[in-house]
UniProtKB/TrEMBL annotation:
Keywords: Cell membrane, Membrane, Transmembrane, Transmembrane helix. Its main location: membrane. This is FtsX-like permease family protein. It is found in: Cell membrane. One of its GO terms (molecular function) is transmembrane transporter activity. GO terms for cellular component: plasma membrane. The chain crosses the membrane at residues 21-43, 303-324, 349-376, 396-423, 444-467, 697-718, 730-758, 778-800. Residues 20-256, 459-626 form the MacB-like periplasmic core domain. InterPro entries: ABC3_permease_C, MacB_PCD, Macrolide_Exporter_MacB. It comes from Ilyomonas limi.
Length: 817
């Protein structure tokens, strides 16, 4: 019996090649989307599932308010870890994780006896300072050394196997123990242990571990602010594992007591508060409120959006299959009648048609498996690093694919199977299966399916246009500074004071350079640099403000305007300040001129305000403009405005080559890593750019599948109205008249879909835009353009069949009358 089902399915597939290919194509799109999104979701939701007792592991995070502005930080004051170990009960393990300072990387020199020039590895990432308890919290397999003693003493380091092979490629693990490694020319550590690399999806990405005790024995004691409770650095993270039966609320209460003990001003009023909270480990990978240094956050709403896209594409593919199958039902009617006459039961026919659907779905699934690796490469920007596709090593993917194939086969094939198996032999053998009476019986279902397809398509079109409109607004609105034609780079740490002026003089002498400056961060950066600043009239106004610094040319490079006062004077130390207009208003000055000459307290030192600058966006459009101060001093960040480029980009290429030459003359062993500043601004919206790109693809696929479904409904309708069309032509109807008659109903369906989709899309986009402090408007023309575009696409799709039907010879349709 099953062999007969297979043979029949294959014959039907081969006999109706066009319909079969369209069905396979539609299902392949839906199944491929579902498979890729399943891989992404499984990867993201499998994070941190291997740690023993993970339900008792928490990251300590900080919630604060400064003058009513909320601040959420994954970093905490550095002395908190020691205080928890000594004063908090119910905690089994306390694990501080201090990221390597600077840009999170280190210059590593491998000390080898008898060599004048040791091997140097530039910008090594994922180096942390931590204690022995780390390896009980995050278990590694030990190759050499032990978790109890390897990080006990100062100036010890544990390496992962990959890092050990990089530094000591010719030595065995036992021979590496005792070797020395130098970090940034100022800390030398001895290798005390080697562990295997983690083969897990985890937020703990470190591969090189320096003993936490090293900090207390070096200048890092001050750099990490190990004794400061009222401030913290982004490098300072802390994890705890509660004891069996421990309670997170009780531990948080003890942390509150610690904070009140060591920072009495932490909660001085309702607008200025601070508190510690325990963030569960399973929330670390998903909570963007607490984005740790160098940490990759998976956005749950985006994942849910991907689920929705996969579900929509699968649903549309199933609807498309249903419409096309029922549209082609006339070709199977006599076959069904004969089978029933010969004794086939309806149950047997249902299984036969479900088997045919399963056959087509299996073909679509095989095609999906073949193209999935290509899709993963094509959509690399959406794919988490480390995600791969290998059916031999991922049996859960095979299980998912089998379940998906069965599910899609059942959903797609059940309705056509019930309809086709329900034909009465007497009617179909008399060619009466497609009279108007029988057609109207199920017409509303097919129309509803078609409307649902176009609702989804219309929703995606509106969404794509609005996301693109917001991105365009973010990139092209007035940011308060210039970003075009500017390049930035950073010199090696702790060298600015020695070589900075020499390099800036050489750059300013280059003819293609308009002006150059050195200082700190550019006006807008993805990260934030804050400092506690006080203004001391009564009552005192204390705020956490963004800081920038640079020489006087900084304002010329970026075209930042002064509202009052003057620019800073050249200096290597902080002597005077410029504040932005937002901070001036926070301090209570009604006019910018009123702030000139006032004193601000920074780190215990009083500095005068010499100017008030125009507000500029110091972060992305997601964030409101915050209080900001500009300090007049130099630094290791270089900002260079180039002269207007020539056609072909020759002038800028020449300028960059000369700047690189000047850089290499001073730093011959360092890499010249520069970037255009407008690229930095664009990177703020990388997530939105990826969303827009994904929406464009989803929109295109949705429109394609929807039009296939519409084409199926048109073909079905034309089959049922073929004689009517013939009679109209005989009575003198023109081609245009017949096309309009056939198209009117379908255009009404598309318009109905727009009426349903428009308010849904408006609500979804409105909610999405709330994430932006500065956002574009919900323009009416977006809805008009998207609706008109969908109507035009539908009209073109309809014309393919309606014109063909209207120009057909009426004799062929009436010869049986």
């Amino acid at each position: 019996m099953f062999k007969n089902y297979f043979i029949t399915a294959f014959r039907n597939f081969w006999r109706n090649k066009i319909f079969s290919i369209i069905n396979v194509l539609g299902l392949s799109i839906g199944i491929s989307a579902a498979l890729v999104i399943f891989l992404i979701a499984y990867y993201e939701f499998s994070y941190d599932k291997f740690e023993p007792g993970r339900d008792r592991i928490y990251r300590v995070v900080l919630d604060a308010k400064f003058n009513g502005d909320e601040v959420h930080s994954a970093a905490v004051p550095a002395p908190l870890s020691g205080a928890i170990q000594n004063e908090v009960t119910g905690v089994e393990q306390t694990v501080p994780i201090m990221q390597f300072q600077g840009d999170g990387t280190a210059k590593v020199s491998v000390v080898k006896e008898g060599t004048d020039k040791p091997p140097v590895f530039k910008k090594q990432p994922d180096i942390v300072y931590t204690n022995p308890q780390y390896f009980y919290l995050v278990p590694h397999k030990w190759i050499a050394g032990s978790p109890k003693s390897s990080l006990q003493d100062p100036f010890n380091v544990v390496l992962t196997e990959s890092r050990a092979k990089l530094y000591f490629p010719s030595l065995s693990a036992s021979d590496i123990i005792g070797r020395q490694i130098n970090y940034n020319d100022d800390i030398t550590a001895t290798v005390s242990g080697i562990v295997q690399d983690l083969n897990e999806h985890t937020s703990f990405t470190a591969v090189e571990f320096i003993s936490f005790a090293t900090i207390a024995k070096t200048h890092l004691q001050d750099k990490f602010m190990m004794n400061v409770w009222n401030d913290w650095m982004a490098y300072s993270n802390l994890y705890v594992k509660l004891a069996e039966g421990g309670n997170a609320q009780q531990t948080e209460a003890q942390l509150k007591m610690l904070l009140n003990k060591y920072n009495k001003d932490a909660n001085k009023d309702a607008a200025n508060t601070m508190s510690f909270r325990l963030q569960p480990l399973n929330d670390v990978h998903f909570n963007s409120l607490y984005n740790g240094f160098g940490q990759r956050i998976a956005h749950k709403p985006t994942l849910y959006g991907l689920f929705a896209i996969a579900a929509f594409l699968l649903l549309l593919a199933c609807i498309n299959f249903i419409n096309l199958t029922t549209a082609n039902a006339s070709q199977r009617a006599k076959e069904i009648g004969i089978r029933k006459t010969m004794g086939s039961s309806r149950k047997q026919l249902v299984f036969q048609f479900l088997g045919e659907t399963f056959f087509i779905t299996v073909i679509a699934s095989v095609i999906s498996v073949v193209i999935t690796p290509l899709l993963l490469q094509f959509f690399a920007d959406f794919i988490p690093p480390g995600l791969r596709f290998d059916l031999q090593e991922q049996p859960y993917v095979v299980v998912f694919l089998c379940m998906l194939t069965v599910f899609v086969s059942f959903i797609s094939g059940l309705y056509p199977a019930l309809i086709l198996s329900g034909y009465k032999p007497v009617i179909v053998l008399k060619n009466q299966a497609f009279t108007n009476g029988s057609e109207t019986r199920h017409a509303w279902i097919r129309k509803a399916l078609t409307v649902s397809q176009f609702v989804v398509a219309q929703f995606f079109i509106i969404g794509t246009m609005m996301v693109s409109k917001q991105i365009n607004y973010s990139l092209n609105t007035d940011l308060g500074f210039n970003k075009e034609g500017i390049i930035t780079f950073v010199t090696p740490r702790d060298t600015a004071a020695v070589h900075g002026q020499q390099l800036i003089n050489a750059i300013n002498a280059i003819p293609e350079v308009e002006v150059a400056s050195r200082g700190f961060l550019s006006p807008a950066e993805e990260g934030a640099a804050f400092s506690n600043v006080s203004y001391t009239p009564k009552p005192e106004i204390k705020a956490q403000v963004q800081i920038r610094w640079g020489d006087p040319n900084y304002f010329k490079v970026y075209g930042i305007k002064l509202l009052a006062g003057r620019n800073v004077e050249p200096s290597d130390t902080i002597k005077e300040l410029i504040i932005n207009n937002t901070y001036a208003k926070l301090l209570g000055f009604q006019e910018p001129e009123d702030a000139i000459g006032k004193q601000l307290d920074i780190s215990g030192k009083s500095k005068p305000i010499v100017g008030v600058m125009h507000d500029f966006h110091d972060q992305s459009m997601h964030t409101p403009i915050t209080p900001l101060i500009f300090e007049g001093r130099t630094g290791g960040f270089f900002h260079i405005r180039l002269k207007p480029n020539t056609p072909g980009g020759i002038m800028w290429q020449t300028a960059i080559a000369k700047i690189q030459k000047a850089f290499k003359q001073i730093y011959p062993d360092e890499d010249f890593d520069y970037k255009f500043y407008d690229d930095t601004i664009a990177s703020f919206y990388a997530s939105e750019q990826r969303t827009a790109s994904l929406l464009k693809w989803a929109t295109g696929l949705t429109i394609f599948i929807s039009c296939l479904g519409l084409l199926g409904l048109v073909m079905y309708t034309i089959n049922t109205r073929r004689k009517e069309i013939g009679i109209r032509k005989v009575l003198g109807a023109s081609v245009a008249n017949i096309v309009s008659v056939l198209s009117a109903d379908f255009m009404q369906l598309v318009f109905l879909a727009f009426v349903i989709a428009a308010p849904l899309a408006w609500w979804a986009i409105y909610e999405w835009l709330q994430d932006y402090a500065y956002r574009t408007t919900m323009s009416w023309w977006v809805f008009i353009v998207s609706g008109s575009a969908m109507l035009l696409i539908a009209l073109i799709t309809l014309s393919i069949q309606t014109i063909k039907a209207a120009t057909a010879n009426p004799v062929k349709s009436l010869r049986t009358e």
